[in-house]
Amino acid sequence: MNTLFSSTGSILAIMTAMVAFGFYLQKYKVTKSLGPALTIIIMGIILSNLKVVPVSTELYGTISTYAIPVSMTIMLMSVDLKEMTKLSREPLIAIFVAVLTVSIMAFLFGLVFAGEISEGWKVAGMFVGTYTGGSANLTAIGTGLNVSRQTLAAANAADYVIGVPTLIFMFALPAILKNSKKFQKFWPYHLEESELEDCQNEEFMESKEWSIKDIAWMLAIGFVVTEVATILSGYFSSSFSSAARILLVTTISIIIAQLKPVKKLKGNLDLGLFVALFFLCTIGFSVDIKEFLGSTFTITFYCFSIIFASFVFHLFVTRMLKIKYQYVILSIVGAIADGPTSALVAASAKWNSLVSVAVVMGVIGGVLGNYAGISVAYAIKMVLGL
């Protein structure tokens, strides 16, 4: 693909400039309401579709492999298990409801669409996977169901067409809901500002005192934990190794976070977001608008039906259960994307105390999604006699 810049050095230069510019734009009201994550995704989409940078390259895969687990480890350094026990019930309910609603809607709509789509029953399982634990689950379940390359490509395209705009909307949603008086009346259940502060009592993305030693130690811990988790995940089956890696990163990070020297490290949320923003650059770059428009209509409409119906049903159930809306949003993001992305939404919204909770919700959704996706697929196959 012919683009203005394609070398590794030039792309890295562009990405670092994007991250710096994304933080700089937070001084303005409009971009501050979007947050740095959404701002950078939009910049990435513009640059790739104007042929400034390529839509895909090996560098993006390398960054995706390391940026998310490293940033997740660093963000989890502020975890206080004693505090988390106070927040355990509602987040768990929220993510379980997310998995349940997606499974139900994928099954019901699967009965309608499976006969109209090539390998439709397998597609249903893949969509359950991707909307309970992220795109990695879609591929994992597709592989487990021996889906064809053509169907896998079509499902991924449909997922991008519907999933990416939904995810972008979810990044903007916290600011929209916070400023909506009508929503506050309709959904009066929420966490107070004091409850959303992190245990270090630091302002997110604001000036603070921290040293190069803090940065060095946090990056060192992040890469070491990532590598250890990667090695250990290799002992699991290929279909579960990705989920195992995230589970291991989360578990090891939380254990390390309880150590007193680690608790003294400052600025973990800022540094974690900084590292993660490089991954979000690649997310923006990978959005090919032409590919979106060229995806199969039926499978895209099936994807839209699942995500829209699940979203509405999820909101209805969690509203009836009086779940605080911050948990609801993070559970939706954790299901649509993954725990780290949910943590990014929490961090961007300055819900600092919920960063670790968001990661855990995403991991739970991802693990349950593998089982739920395969179960829904075979249930549709059995009912329709395919």
Fold topology:
Layout: H1 8-24, H2 29-49, H3 58-75, H4 81-84, H5 89-113, H6 120-133, H7 135-144, H8 149-178, H9 181-186, H10 193-196, H11 212-233, H12 238-257, H13 260-263, H14 268-285, H15 289-293, H16 297-320, H17 325-336, H18 339-348, H19 355-384
Walk me through this protein's architecture.
By secondary structure, the protein is mainly alpha-helical. It has one domain (78-267, 296-384). The protein is 76% helix and 0% strand. It is built from 19 helices and no strands. Helix 7 (135-144) runs antiparallel to helix 12 (238-257). The termini are far apart.
Q: How many structural units, i.e. domains? A: 1
Number of helices: 19
Largest sheet: none
Radius of gyration: 20 Å
Q: Which characteristics define this entry?
A:
386 residues, mainly alpha, 19 helices, 76% helix, 0% strand
Brief overview, please?
This protein has 386 residues and is an all-alpha fold. It has helices at residues 8-24, 29-49, 58-75, 81-84, 89-113, 120-133, 135-144, 149-178, 181-186, 193-196, 212-233, 238-257, 260-263, 268-285, 289-293, 297-320, 325-336, 339-348, 355-384. The protein has one domain (78-267, 296-384).
